[in-house]
Amino acid sequence: MEDKKNLFSAIQPSGILTIGNYLGALRHFRALQDDYNGIFSLADLHTLTVRQDPAVLRKNIYELTALYLACGIDAEKSILFAQSHVSAHTELAWVLNTICYPGELMRMTQYKDKSKKHEDNINMGLMDYPVLMAADILLYQTELVPIGADQKQHLELARDLAIRFNNLYGETFKVPEGYIGKSAARVMSLAEPTRKMSKSDANLNAFISMNDDPDTIIRKFKRAVTDSDNQIIASPEKPGITNLLTIYSAFTNKTIEDAEKEFAGKGYGDFKIAVGEAVAEVIEPIRQEKNRLLANKDYLDDVLKCGAERAERIAYRTLNKVYRKVGLVQRKRG
Ligand code: TYM
Question: Who is most buried in 52, 126, 212, 306, counting CB within 10 A?
Answer without folding.
Answer: 212
